[in-house]
């Protein structure tokens, strides 16, 4: 799944309620995940144990935000746009020179497989640079059954 796993693509048009987290450190991720789960419940999604798609959104949020915090430059902004057909997740940092690079030929016990995981869960994904910030995005389905590619 080399470089093509995170193609350079512009962000899709996302319309809907916007949720945003400004993050400085990995230590803030548990609170951000809890906040995302709370917002999902507020808009009528069942608890994560009952809704695989909601938990996959939280997992993708965590993977992309933690990658940006570990490998990019702070501050990191994680944004979720609640759309009618799913969720648009966009995570940006101040390191436009470093593209997202999925791990290749690495022992899974060493970690670093988050981009592969998000690519498999998403219906579309990509990255782009805008105004000195790198944005890594993924479109996540609203239900587990909606998982089919938007475009290849």
From TrEMBL:
Q: Which UniProt keywords apply?
A: Kinase, Serine/threonine-protein kinase, Transferase
Signal peptide range equals: none
Task: List residues of the Histidine kinase/HSP90-like ATPase domain.
Answer: 26-138
Which Gene Ontology terms cover its molecular function? protein serine/threonine kinase activity
**InterPro entries assigned to the protein according to its UniProt record, in alphabetical order:** Anti-sigma-factor_SerPK, HATPase_C_sf, HATPase_dom
Question: What is this protein's record name?
Answer: Histidine kinase/HSP90-like ATPase domain-containing protein
Organism from which the protein derives:
Geodermatophilus sabuli
Coiled-coil blocks: none
SUPFAM superfamilies assigned:
ATPase domain of HSP90 chaperone/DNA topoisomerase II/histidine kinase
Q: Does the keyword Transferase apply?
A: yes
């Amino acid at each position: 799944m080399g470089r093509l796993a995170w193609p350079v693509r512009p962000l899709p048009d996302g319309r809907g309620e916007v949720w945003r987290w400004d993050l400085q450190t990995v230590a803030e991720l548990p609170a951000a995940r809890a906040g995302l789960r709370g917002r999902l419940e507020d808009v009528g999604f069942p608890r994560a144990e009952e809704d695989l798609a909601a938990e996959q959104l939280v997992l993708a949020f965590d993977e992309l935000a933690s990658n940006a915090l570990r490998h990019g430059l702070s501050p990191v902004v994680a944004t979720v746009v609640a759309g009618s057909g799913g969720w648009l997740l966009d995570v940006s940092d101040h390191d436009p020179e470093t593209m997202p690079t999925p791990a290749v030929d690495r022992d899974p016990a060493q970690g670093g497989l988050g981009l592969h995981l998000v690519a498999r869960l998403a219906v579309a994904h990509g990255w782009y640079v805008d105004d000195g910030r790198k944005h890594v995005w993924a479109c996540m389905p609203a239900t587990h059954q909606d998982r089919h590619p938007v475009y290849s």
